[in-house]
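User: Hi! Is it possible to get a structure for several chains at once, not just one? Here's what I have:
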Amino acid sequence: MANLNLKINGKTHTVDVEEDTPLLWVLRDHLGLVGTKYSCGIAQCGACTVHLNGEAIFSCSMPVSIVGSDEVTTIEGLSEEGDHPVQQAWEEIDVAQCGYCQAGQIMNAAALLKKNPSPSMEEIENAMNRNLCRCGTYHKIREAVAKAAKI
Amino acid sequence: MATLTKTNRRDFLKIAGTTAGGLFIGFNWLGCDSPKMEVLSDEQVLSQAKNFNAYLSIAPSGDIVIYSPNPELGQNIKTSFPMVVAEELDADWKKVRVLQANLDAEKFDRQLTGGSGAMPHSWERLRKAGATARYLLVAAAAKEWAVPAEEITTSEGMIFHKGSGKEASYGDMAIAASMLEAPEEVALKDKKDFKIIGTPVKNVDSRAIYTGKPLYGLDFYREGMLHAMVQRPPFGMKIKSVDDAEAKAVTGVSDVLTFDNNVAVIGNSTWPLMKAKKLLKVEYEPDGSVESTSDHDRIFREMLDTGKAEERRKDGNVEIAFKNAAQVIKAEYQCPFLSHSPMEPMNFFAHVKENSAELIGPTQTPDRAASSAAEILGIPKENITVEITRLGGGFGRRLRADYADEAVKISKLINAPVKVTWSREDDLTGGAYRPAVRYRFEAALDGDGNMIGYKLKGAGINAGNSTRENNFPSGAVENVLIESIDHKSTITTNAWRAPITNFLAYAEQSFLDEVALAAKKDPVEFRLALLEKAKTNPVGGDLGYDADRMIGVIKTAADKSNWGKNPTISQGFSVYFSHRTYVAQVADIEMENGSPVLKKITAATDCGMVINPTGANHQVRGGIVDGMGHAMYGNLTFENGLPTQKNFDKYRLIRMKEVPQIDVHYVDSGFDPTGLGEPALPPTGGAVANAIYKATERRLRTQPFIEQKEFEDLNLVIKRS
Ligand code: FES
Ligand code: FES
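Assistant: Yes, the chains can be modeled jointly so their relative placement is included. Here is the combined structure:
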């Protein structure tokens, strides 16, 4: 077991967990931040996407001991009022079906737009292709990322 | 009279409270342009609200609570049901908050999600629920103002009497109205007066979803609960021995126990259990037939060649028809097992107490979960509560109660509240799949290319009846024989989005394409001619479908896709009727640099009245993406009772760059609404396969397409404009 200080959504949290515990399960089971989802656990679906120093990563495949003092942002901390341009665009376009994949989609889209504020449709697709949506909301996700880039 | 507050102020509702269990229950998001107001929590509203019926309460504040009884898994029922109630109530949608109802057999009927049946089943009772409350509010106002009720009008949560100039809000009249006797009969609105139905109302949970609130079963947490994961046996096997020493040694694991044919690891969080499960050493031995995909291929052939099938439908005399035929066309089509793989894996919380149990989780059939728990525990069903969380997809998998049963059994064994979580590997290997099926089709054509005989023999593995004998083209052909035969397997199967038709439609619509081409007829004209016959002179009495509605979607799809108008576009046609809804689709392929490029699928749907265009488009597009994804990529094969594909690295789901443009159209037939969760899926595989044939003369008779030799050097490109 290790005592770790994690910087999550602008606050420092101390957790006592095994070092190999994936960041995903620390967030979900130890910190109650369940907005970050589990679906495959092997970096294939993107449901667990969070930001590590602004980069979109798969938290299911990131042992918590590697996180160190890097800044973690989860869907709960993406914006204070839930009004990040990507969240607004998702709301506007009404993207979700079951909604389970959408936190991961939003985090991935937000990281993309930070790096590339006005991506082409091809760039959007290249970035978003790593997130699965079993309900098939892909058309709306494309539309919403493009819309968020304009907010 | 209560003072009238300006009711059209645009309240900004912040996160609206939690239930005792800590689960987020409801929300209403009204746009970020509105000022923030003091807003009542759901609990505050509920404590003041007056109950009008099972669906509906109104608070003096004017806040309206509408309960949605059916499980929400992305089909948007939690938004569309309340829209219907609010429509007849003449409510101000901005004042409506929607709560998921728990299982309540006394208040609600058919509290399940399956068969695309919720809307047709509940359409009228939802309308009546709203209309009755409106009637009472009007009656209360008429009494208070001493004016005839007939002179009173309502609009957006307000009550008006023109003659006296009086007006009141629904909140003002809520208490008085709730004390009046409900009428036995109530008039419903004329459909042309609908203001909410037919508009793109937003998903009522959207803000909670986009801000990461705990909505789903997997998010549920209760102080003091334990976690459990279960190791299940391969199909046809039973436990011979268990060595749990290493698993037990994992920090965070409190217990390992064997129940039924399973081994459960128990602990205080999920990750230690995932680790411990991998360290379990469980030996299995055969306990029935242990099957592999190679066995199934042999069993299919045996069933089709020599198996004694059950006759499902017989019209005329196929023997004579085939003997007299100028041309006979034969083909076989096969589909593999598929996993449902909703993004949220199976999970359930159970707290079994002495003579009661509390269940919380994602289920399509809360009633089945309760019945099953009652049976396991030997206690009355009334002592079991089921709270329905939002479901991260279902696709039929959550019609079963197996994962809830596990939570019940483990909670009883360890005498503690517990949440059972399945890993993705558990989900892919844990059973209840879409059955594998193989079909043999035969068609007899006369000298003019008319189909005079049609034979279908379906062979399934735990598929039950793998045909839909009364569907088209039955009724349109004089001589028909439809048979079904099934192999009982140890591999468990279950309804999978559009059961049976999810594959049958592809096989049948591809085969009809083969027949039309052999008859040298245009595939659309060929189908229309058959339907004309079904309409004017149906074979075998009543049709299982409405020929006019099927003709309607065929013509619309042909028209909207410019069917046959552009010789550089290879088009594939498909049409299917399932779950009371009609959907026709056209897939467009163009050749670019020598490669076929799938660019567009055009769909025409007749689901009667469209309640919510956004939700409807979601279901049609989502169904097409699903149909296309599984036809192209989905495959679950077995080796000694165990699936070969255990996670999304091997079990391939469709991704964003693999979907074409999808254009969605509706046929306004004037009928009451029918469901849309399933019917758009069945036609897609056929439309795509037929377009591929048109473009390349490669006939794809087995799914998934990408694993067929016909597909190997096809270089199919998929594009979105
Ligand atoms: S859960 Fe991390 S990528 Fe799927
Ligand atoms: S909305 Fe259901 S998985 Fe994406």
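Chain A touches chain B through 61 residues (CB under 8 Å). Residues A 38-41, 43-48, 58, 60 surround FE2/S2 (inorganic) cluster (ligand 1) (CB under 6 Å).

User: Great, thank you!
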